[in-house]
Amino acid sequence: MKTLKPIFDAIETSAHRIREAITNEDLCYSEACNATGDMQLKLDIQSDLIIAEEFSKITAIKEIASEEKEESETLHEEGRYCIAYDPLDGSSLIDVDLSVGTIYGIYDREFQPQNMIAAVYVVHGPRLEMVTAYKGGVRHFIYRHGQFMEQETVSLNEKGKLNAPGGTQQYWPTHHKKLIDGLFAEGYRLRYSGGMVPDLHQILLKGGGLFSYPGTTDKPDGKLRKLFEVYPFAFVYETAGGEAIDDKGRRLLETRCDDPHETTPCFFGSKYEISKVKEAYGIG
Ligand code: F6P
Fold first, then answer.
1. Domain carrying residue 247
2. Is residue 254's pLDDT more than 80?
3. Of 94, 123, 153, which residue sits at a domain end?
4. Do 125 and 235 lie in a common domain?
5. What is the pTM of this model?
6. How far is the CA of 134 from the centre of ligand 1 (A)?
7. Ligand 1 nearest-atom number relative to CA 197
8. 235 to each of 93, 113, 114, how far by Cα in Å?
């Protein structure tokens, strides 16, 4: 397999350009909605354009799929890698100056989780940070003095302390509410900003916990998109020694994706919390 270095470099360049845009550009909503029906901020569209422009320079990239676009796009017929990305996840949080992020899943030839070879996310918070999962290791970088400086290798403990429960509580199934209440009763602390990137980043860097987005009565298949949000984080969490499953107890990375915008209930955590999910859901 060829090195992914040019792809990682393009992700870094895009991170700087998006950071610039967040700092300096107009935030207002465009007239458009994306493929999932979310209102698009001008910044969502701009971030998407930046990434597509940087990736189009790399001949090893065959196809790209963006959360902001209905269909995937072929860049280089002879290329090998397929990259799915969410240019600015949680972008509405920029309105209130909370952290947002960019998520990438890199696949060998086909957009199926079994073909994923690397995942990367960038956090646009008070600092610019990047996490890569590749070749069995999760690496954490902080942007300082003009470059991304590598920090300690990241790994999850067997059991954590944080609980990030997504979705509207009023629509949670009873067994899910029991799971979440049970974790709080054990002393878990609530940490939920409404941005998947910073919420999962916090759990990852603070040793563990649970991030959940269940199937609800209003959204039976959950809200989070397999290709743009769920698979990359499943890859990161598994590589860091944690687990990532759906509400049937299947490893998310063993499921299939038949539509780029398909969603799934999802649970990411360290081993202990995932065992609690399985117990509450009666799935193993
Ligand atoms: O998919 C966008 C997103 O903003 C994620 O980043 C976040 O985890 C989720 O939606 C929050 O959804 P909710 O407000 O329903 O918990």
1. 162-280
2. yes
3. 153
4. no
5. 0.95
6. 26
7. 6
8. 25, 9, 10
Place of tokens 């910073």: 198
Which of 90, 125, 153 is the last residue in one of the domains? 153
Burial of 72 from C-beta contacts in 10 A (0-12 / 13-18 / 19+): middle
Q: Are residues 122 and 215 in the same domain?
A: no
Q: What is the pLDDT of residue 2?
A: 62
Instruction: Compute, in angstroms, the gap from residue 93 CA to the centroid of ligand 1.
Output: 10
Structure tokens at 267: 């649970």
d(CA 255, CA 266): 12
Residues 90 and 22 sit within 8 Å (Cβ to Cβ): no
For residue 223, how far is its CA from the centre of ligand 1 (angstroms)? 7
Asked whether residue 189 falls in the same domain as residue 78, the answer is: no
Q: Domain total for the chain?
A: 2
Q: Which residues line ligand 1 (CB under 6 A)?
A: 89-90, 166-167, 194-196, 223-224
Under a CB-based contact definition with an 8 Å cutoff, are residues 139 and 150 in contact?
yes
| Centre of ligand 1 from the C-alpha of residue 204, in Å | 18
CA atoms within 13 A on the CB side of 133: 26
Shared domain check, 192 and 132: no
With 80 as the cut, is the pLDDT of residue 27 above it? no
Q: Which CATH number is 186's domain given?
A: 3.40.190.80
Nearest CA to ligand 1 atom 14: 194
